[in-house]
């Protein structure tokens, strides 16, 4: 027996698979299909990280299993390559981002290939390829034509260090998700996408898909559907109202003041009447430096200023109340103004305490001098004329009706979800394919002129006015209006990093199509994606965005399913040996290349799947890697104990059938670690017996193949099995054979043994009763009788008393 040399074996089989196009899809559309998808990587300069192969191996296992089960499998790969990291690198090293991308892609590709993933490489896509982004631009134009893309002056999140606008999703704890820089508010003219128009469908259609629960919950919370009332508060001595959004109209009698956001238009409107305008201006200035995150942080000290000179009137009792300005009310939610009920809202309570504003209890149950009483389940309304004595739920209903009847308010659904800020003032992204004409306004570039190519520039840095470097290229910017032919200007903003990934799963279906985004018959056959695995961090970004785009494409008749992904799962992170995040600065990053070189790709794959619960984060362990290598060495040595025979060894039959069942089920339910453990147990059984048949090892090799495809393929060849393992068949198991040992249990009727039943030793009384009824000799004594008592001793005896 030759030594186990993974590096030789692995290269050999990778070459064979590629040459024979083993992992390419079949054109035979009568076959059942399976579309497995992983989140295509961002080809960063650092190369692959050991975190990447974890989800890739998992879906590679599922894809390989499905092929062996006879499915036509699509398991594609590509590159999500626009965006800041590459651009920042390009700026720093003065290399064109296209070059940087090419280099990074080449390296990623080599790394991925060395691990032996069964990707369909002929369908490789790259979001920065003009042939690809042509269609990203095309979809944008469709959105624009349907009124779902619009330009608006918006206070946006602005990263002071990247000098770029960010979506809410890209701001984490008040900082830029990319660079960690400080994020402030800045008002800019931005392209926006109306994802809010799809808010309800994005919630409701979650019922149609099989996503892990935490993904569903996070999306629902992020969309944040909230049912309440918009209530009008008259402004004293004016023919004008201040609208507020509240989920608690029952507390209207407890309103002691109002608060508007720092950017609320009321200030501008009444600036001549406001007595302390200067003070207000100062406060506005102070608030503008804070992100929404900082403003809404619960723990922070409340700040604010009373607006002197204007007052509001409470619609339920006509009491005059002051209006304050404070940053704890956001302009971007509801109406940008609130009715403050300090007795029953914690933020209002803190504010009232700080500024000495009155606190009026309207729901009984707490001590509102000590804290806001917020329990809505058990409270009863007091001090509230129209609704006194009612429970909160009923009070809300009654007062809402009253407000509507009197034209003082209307029911309203609000969402936390905001429209998607879709402009970036950066170079390395898809140009937004619109032209601005003084006469015609915004006009899309005609379809036959797509793609609008990203021009070569000398300098990729954003301009200091915050515009994209494209704005510095008059020869690119100046063009003619596609509608009227007059001089016009191109939009210089580019699309965000998330654009290309919002539809990439469709391009895989027909990646080389020059006429269309993808052919209808391909879309109809392959969609939806059957199983999509990706990071939890994308739940409220990419996953939500792509569901939105897909629904839009559905609405314009381009795709045939309302949801793009049937199933969504998510993996845990791989941490450093000491349980902390792997990072360059900590110097604890493990490079998969080193593991492949030293131990082999099959060891890396086995280890990443054996490392622990797939959904949990786990620390890396070099010892664990070594253990997996030893396991594969033992698998390799199995060839020495194989004898001829096309049936399972009798003593191994049960355990083999059980292992088939366990491994088959575990691969489907992300329990890769326990599947591998079962194979390790089977291997031990093989070695204990010391002699196994070809049938025994054949099944073992197929079961292990999805995890360790190279060594199993090599052993398959050494042992002289027909064809290639990767084209063989997944084994099936026999339910009967996996029953544990069967015992014979005596059954007594009125104290006499009337027969025996064959039953498993841990069977329950119900099973025993069924078995007894199937047994003729016992049944004779039960017929036409009534069972009055049963005594059942598990695994021992079954006593029946009848009369
Ligand atoms: C009065 C009230 C009394 C409220 C009470 C709550 C409890 P959700 O569920 O998140 O939709 N609110 C409304 N607009 C706001 C804004 N722009 N910035 C900050 N807070 C705002 O929350 C709705 C509640 O959040 C609203 O109901 C309002 O306070 C506040 F005992 O109105 B409530
Ligand atoms: Zn024009």
Describe the fold and architecture:
It comes from Tepidimicrobium xylanilyticum. InterPro entries: aa-tRNA-synth_I_CS, aa-tRNA-synth_Ia, Leu-tRNA-ligase, Leu_tRNA-synth_edit, M/V/L/I-tRNA-synth_anticd-bd, Methionyl/Leucyl_tRNA_Synth, Rossmann-like_a/b/a_fold, tRNAsynth_Ia_anticodon-bd. One of its GO terms (cellular component) is cytosol. There is one protein chain. Helix 1 (6-20) crosses helix 23 (709-718). This protein has 803 residues and is α/β, with parallel strands linked by helices. It contains 25 helices and 34 strands. The site of ligand ANZ has 17 residues, from strand 12 and strand 16.
Itemize the secondary structure elements and their pairings.
Blueprint lengths: L5 H15 L12 E6 L14 H16 L3 E3 L3 E2 L4 H10 L3 H18 L10 E2 L3 H16 L3 E11 L4 E3 L4 E2 L2 E2 L6 E11 L5 H6 L5 E2 L1 H11 L2 E10 L5 E6 L10 E4 L5 H4 L7 H12 L3 H5 L8 E9 L6 E6 L11 E4 L5 H10 L7 E2 L15 E2 L10 H14 L3 E6 L5 E2 L12 E4 L3 E4 L29 H4 E3 L6 E4 L13 H4 L12 H7 L4 E3 L8 H14 L11 E3 L4 E2 L16 H8 L1 H10 L7 E2 L2 H16 L4 E2 L9 H16 L3 H18 L2 E2 H11 L4 H10 L24 E7 L2 E8 L5 H10 L1 H7 L4 E7 L3 E6 L1
Parallel strand pairs: 1-2, 1-25, 3-4, 10-26, 13-15, 25-26, 27-28, 29-30, 31-34
Antiparallel strand pairs: 5-6, 5-9, 7-8, 9-20, 11-12, 11-14, 11-19, 13-16, 14-15, 17-18, 21-22, 21-24, 23-24, 31-32, 33-34
